[in-house]
Amino acid sequence: MTSRTEELLPGTQRALLHRIARAQTEGRAPSLVAAVAREGRMVWTGSRSCVDGHAPDADTQYRIGSITKTFTAVLVLRLRDEGLLDLDDLLEKHLPDTGVGEVTIAQLLGHSAGLAAESPAPWWERTPGTLRPELADVLGERPVLHPAGRLHHYSNPGFTLLGSLVEAMRGASWEEVLRREILEPLSLDRTSAQPVAPHAGGWAVHPWADAMLPEPAEDLGLMAPAGQLWSTAADLCRFAVFLAEGDEKVLSAASVQELRTPSVPPEAGQWDGGYGLGTQLARRGGRTLVGHTGSLPGFLAGLWVCVEDGVAAVALANVTSGPLVGAVAADLVSIVADAEPRIPEPWRPLPEVDQALLGLTGPWYWGANTFGLKLAADRGLELHPLRGNGRGSRFVVQPDGSWKGLDGYYVGETLRVMRRPDGSVSHLDLGSFVFTREPYDPEGDVPGGVDKEGWRGLPS
């Protein structure tokens, strides 16, 4: 067993090593390597191997399978941010003559386009991509199984279409665009479409005996955007930090947040998870995790990041089935976040205070329900119920002086400050809901009016 540590407490280090050692032993993986990043950088790595003296490290390449999809999604969001497409565009607009062009780009990114899960036989993960030289070979005779937009149905061919879309709009291969637009800017020097030494070999382990069989490592051709990549624990830690924070060289923090936002309802029975745009979402132990898992014959991979805790973890194994590396990576996040919780940033006052906005803060009433309006940084406003679990949101100012909801129930909704002829504030209008300074204020333009006799008791 090997490990490299920085800053983590000894007890945390041992808990991490114990978790991956148990995973490698119980999962019967020829090797397993893991890493943890905290506050933007890798702080721990560990590994376990069945060969004494030959344990991998964070620079050893493993195949990462469907984690590749997140890279492809980033390339598509870059096209959107450059104004070259809209996520609601039909695929046909930019990639004609596929036969499935009536689905939107967003539906493909979120696996709600209704496409089949796999390409026609033979199994694409274990056969060369040359067997599927055209999109028609990938899609087959019955590529659509469900109405578009109705449910989440995971589709590998869907990401082949997205990769072909990137190639068509960039005029270069998916691999070249990936290298130029993601790998080089983020310094992911050990991530590649083909293995580069040192790399692990892929193995299958017999289910009823401690015996191994080598797995082929095929070039997936057109299916590459769905699962081709090789990477290392160190590179994937850097990529996880990008998924949490964004990087203006690749995608802004706001666009990365879109990747992390649920795009469709989860599958039946899976309400503890979901899917964003090329990212998987999970709830574990009260935490929201964002990332992806991946598998190809001979390899398993898992990457999770908890944005709130500032912790990410990666687990990689060179075995077709065995350790649940997605669960391992999630456990590594929990071990660090629970043992060494994030230290809050010190409270600081606002650099400047807009007196007009300050005058809007304090209690407001929607009917008889009490809300508090708070002035936040960057001239933002936060409206939240003061009792119970009612509706609340953050708001950002718009050019016309109105406010747009950023999250929660009022995401995308408009908040307006309504004034009397003398300029004083009458009430707040939030998507037709009227908020007044007093409960059912008769001077607040309450819909339906307010009884003229006002509030009253119950005579005995």
3D structure, described in words:
This protein has 460 residues and is an alpha+beta fold. 25% of the residues lie in helices and 23% in strands. The chain has helices at 10-27, 68-81, 91-94, 105-109, 135-139, 156-170, 174-183, 224-227, 233-245, 253-259, 325-339, 355-358, and strands at residues 2-5, 31-38, 41-49, 62-63, 203-205, 212-214, 230-231, 273-275, 280-284, 287-296, 299-306, 311-317, 362-366, 369-375, 381-385, 393-397, 403-405, 414-419, 425-430, 433-435. The strands form four sheets. An eight-stranded antiparallel β-sheet has the order 1-3-2-12-11-10-9-8, sandwiched between helices. It is globular and about 85 Å long. The termini are far apart. Residues 1-5 have low confidence and may be disordered.
Keyphrases for this structure?
alpha+beta; 460 residues; eight-stranded antiparallel β-sheet; disordered N terminus
Topology:
Elements: E1 2-5, H1 10-27, E2 31-38, E3 41-49, E4 62-63, H2 68-81, H3 91-94, H4 105-109, H5 135-139, H6 156-170, H7 174-183, E5 203-205, E6 212-214, H8 224-227, E7 230-231, H9 233-245, H10 253-259, E8 273-275, E9 280-284, E10 287-296, E11 299-306, E12 311-317, H11 325-339, H12 355-358, E13 362-366, E14 369-375, E15 381-385, E16 393-397, E17 403-405, E18 414-419, E19 425-430, E20 433-435
Helix pairs in contact: 1-11, 2-6, 2-7, 9-10
